[in-house]
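hey so i finally got around to running both of the ones u sent me last week. sorry it took forever, my laptop kept dying halfway thru and i had to restart like 3 times lol. anyway pasting them below in the order u listed, first the sequence line then the structure token line for each. didnt double check formatting much so if smth looks off just lmk and ill redo it

first one:
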Amino acid sequence: MKRSPPRADVRIELLDWESARPRAAPIRHAVFVEEQHVPAESEIDAWDPRCVHVLACDAAGTAVGTGRLLPDGHIGRMAVLREARHLGVGSALLIALMDEARRRGHANAVLSAQTHAIAFYRRHGYTVVSGEYLDCGIPHVDMTCDLGMPAPVR
């Protein structure tokens, strides 16, 4: 299945943490700490400086979503501001992270998905590979995707 391109009004930037932090950290704080009640001290971690980060910016240039790729091919910290959800921002972020993982030579991408987002990740070619577990009190499952082929998006 052919994947859909990101929306024309969403611009994706790949950045190191120093460059991404001023715009990514507030998005992650709003989504994870304020909405989902993740402890603030757990949200920013020692992995951030070692990751490549993506920002999704709207037509006005405002950052509305973010995510990161760890050196081992794990994707994480996917967050989209409430007002930008269901507009294709999450898909644009995930596609950019998967493309970067491929570029870096990873055969698979792995992520820890909140259970409410399983269907979203399945649309991008991910399959569940673990039982449910709690991370910061939120139900999660591990998912993986073969990066040998472009991810399907419906």
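and the second one:
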Amino acid sequence: MPATPVEHEHRVTPRELFFDLVFVFAFTQVATLLTNDPTFAGVGRGVLVLAALWWTWSAYAWLTNTVDPEEGVVGAALLIALIAMFVAALVVPGVFEDDGVLFGAAFVVVWAMHTALYALAGRGSRDLLGAVLRLAPWTLLGAALIVVAGFTDGARIWLWLAALVCAYLGGVVSGSTGWRVHASHFAERHGLVVIIALGEAFIAIGIGATGIGIGPGEVVAAILGILVATSFWLAYFDFFSIRGEQILRDREGPERVALARDLYAYGHFPMIVGIVLFAFAMKSVIGDVGEELGSVAAFALCGGSALYLLTYSGIRMRLERRVVVSRGRFTAALALLLLLPFATAVPALVALALVTAVWLALHTYELVWWREARAESRSALASP
């Protein structure tokens, strides 16, 4: 029996949350990859892997936004995809060495399940099936290139780049006609993955503290790290999560689909990168609070937060179709980038304290200037 598209607004199901658990591990593995190769080239490779993982998670978020994940055939396919995705995540630390083929093979399984399920769901809808068939060549080619990359050495990075270009460009050139987006589910699912990524920051703090003496400096660093992680959370859920859902609800048809793609599928990726970079930096900070950070760790500490905040200006430009920035967040991002030279010249604990101070200053500003906007958004959301 074919999977039937879900026409009504629905909420995230326990099966979807269970599927997302594998990405908790996957994000942790990316941080491990960065820790094993703490260079700017290593950061670049880590971002490539994260882009592939995000591409996959986002695709399944779209899928379960369209089909009912509690249906038998869908649930079985999700389990197969989960197992394959776990295998891929398991070998992330060695993906650019000996484990590239295994990662690619698992990746192909994940994408074969996705394409088959979407095609099955589209059997009852000509428009949806057409959308699936337009996108499938791009996604399957991207997955195939990652497999080929596992058999090469010198061209591996170029093949990864080509694969990701296929994936992300394909989402644009294949168009927005035929796809469906249920606003509440879509916004909720992306909010939950932000929380999943933030969980990596907590894990990083704990791992960084493993095997070292826990003194006052380490305790202070852990508290400051949690404050920054809370700031990431507050920057998203205090306003954007509500407003984003409202904006999607106000749009219909291809316009809603295009906005969901740009604001969520593409717009959330830099946020996830920023969070993972911060998590990686926290391992270095907690590991030796009294020593100066290296240039890569300092970049991850300051640049991760800056990238996260700059994403909101990019989202605003997409919404308003003009060059405009989120004043407070753009200023805070610049301040964080200006901290970079200082972050390598002072003890790690001091660098973390400076980053925390910028975040706290931003939230103080927004509590004052966004007071009415937040109240209006909450009121509109509560209205029937």
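quick thing i noticed on the 2nd:
The chain has 15 helices and no strands.
anyway thats it, ttyl
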